[in-house]
Amino acid sequence: MEVGFLGLGIMGKAISMNLLRNGFKVTVWNRTLSKCDELVAHGATVGGSPAEVIKKCTITIGMLADPAAALSVVFDKGGVLEQICPGKGYIDMSTVDHETSIKISQAITSKGGHFLEAPVSGSKQPAETGQLVILSAGEKALYDEAISALNVIGKKAFFLGEVGNGAKMKLVVNMIMGCMMNTFSEGLVLAEKSGLDPRTLLDVLDLGGIANPMFKGKGPTMLQSNYAPAFPLKHQQKDMRLALALGDENAVSMPIAAAANEAFKKARSLGLGDNDFSAVFEVVKDLKRSS
Ligand SMILES: NC(=O)C1=CN([C@@H]2O[C@H](COP(=O)(O)OP(=O)(O)OC[C@H]3O[C@@H](n4cnc5c(N)ncnc54)[C@H](OP(=O)(O)O)[C@@H]3O)[C@@H](O)[C@H]2O)C=CC1
Ligand SMILES: O=CCCC(=O)O
After folding, report:
1. Closest ligand 2 atom to 214 CA
2. d(C-alpha 151, C-alpha 145), whole Å
3. What contacts 276, CB < 8 A, 6 or more positions away?
4. Cβ 5 vs Cβ 30: under 8 Å
5. Ligand 1 pocket, residues with Cβ under 6 angstroms
6. Best CA proximity match to 1, nearest among 92, 97, 91
7. Per-residue pLDDT tens for 10-35?
8. Whose CA is closest to atom 1 on ligand 1?
9. Distance (Å, rounded) from C-alpha 69 to C-alpha 76?
10. How far apart are CA 242 and CA 196, in angstroms?
């Protein structure tokens, strides 16, 4: 199957490499075109614009930074809308809010095209190894048509019904994750300030009922102040912001998420936005130092 891919950031590059490794023909496009070179070296072809990729491929996947980027790739000159038509499908894997996803869906289906939102849980390494969790919603026929690619990209694909449900599920998951990262950071600081070895805390956590891959994977690198980005902090803050807006819309009080969002905002203001989201640890350390 020939698959188009728009957006070769951390996730897009890893997913399209994985598709190539698994025998898919992939045509890629990225705003910064030089990022296509590595994919071309592994057998991909390049489209000059999102529209060109759509013209060439029956199914095209997008993996863009945020709502503005996801909308731009569809609606701007040379965008998806110029070539989408009956028989062609667009799958947006970007993490966006449900309003953005619905807007994209309506525009695509009004031209006779097919649309699936499919944000993913899991980061760079699961993307490289096809172990993502796919949260899809929209046109079931497109989900079925794309299932061979989705099965290569993820270890499990959920179909959640109408467009918007995938976006909402993804924001709920990342809201929980962002809160956990803040609490984890506070725990590491509290252990250290009260005379405990935070590395022992990691061992204790890993053996108990709140053990999880995030604490296990990020804890050791956080203690070394190593924040090489797998999931950029600026995207985690975007997800907190969008999840809080979903909370506003549904009158759900989320004081813990609001506090976590403030910490991520502070981290961005300190220039940590391109670091891994675990760099919020630096903000938590700072707050404890000054209190
Ligand atoms: N990293 C992770 O662990 C995960 C990320 N996500 C989500 O996936 C999406 C991508 O994340 P990630 O790969 O980490 O992000 P990156 O920041 O690494 O990549 C962002 C991509 O979006 C493109 N882009 C940004 N702005 C525009 C624009 N205005 N027009 C066109 N293209 C644009 C970038 O192009 P350019 O190269 O030109 O800047 C790049 O291809 C985000 O929505 C994120 O929240 C979901 C799960 C995990
Ligand atoms: O959106 C990013 C999710 C990162 C993860 O699930 O580890």
Report:
1. 7
2. 11
3. 218, 221, 227, 228, 229, 230, 231, 232, 233
4. no
5. 7-12, 30-32, 35, 63-66, 68-69, 72-73, 94-95, 120, 123-124, 230-232, 235
6. 91
7. 999 999 999 999 999 999 999 999 99
8. 231
9. 10
10. 37
Which residue puts its alpha carbon closest to atom 28 of ligand 1? 69
Q: Domains in the chain, ordered, with CATH?
A: 2-161 (3.40.50.720), 168-284 (1.10.1040.10)
- pTM exceeds 0.90: yes
Q: Which residues belong to the active site?
A: 170
Task: Report whether residue 105 contacts ligand 2, using a CB cutoff of 6 Å.
Answer: no
174 Cβ inside 6 Å of ligand 2: yes
Distance separating alpha carbons of residues 229 and 278, to the nearest angstrom: 9
Is the C-beta atom of 232 inside 6 A of ligand 2?
no
CA atoms within 13 A on the CB side of 66: 12
Question: In the block, which residue shows the tokens 């990209």?
Answer: 153
DSSP β-bridge partners for residue 16: none
Q: What is the ipTM of this complex?
A: 0.99
Q: Do 37 and 53 contact (CB within 8 A), yes or no?
A: no
Task: Establish whether residue 278 lines the binding site of ligand 2, counting it when its CB lies within 6 angstroms of any ligand atom.
Answer: no
pLDDT digits (tens, 9 = 90+) for 151-199: 999 999 999 999 999 999 999 999 999 999 999 999 999 999 999 999 9
| Token pair for 272 | 């940590």
Q: Which residues of 167-206 are buried (b: 16+ CB within 10 A; e: fewer)?
A: bbbbbebbbebbbbbbebbbbbbebbeeeeebeebbeebe
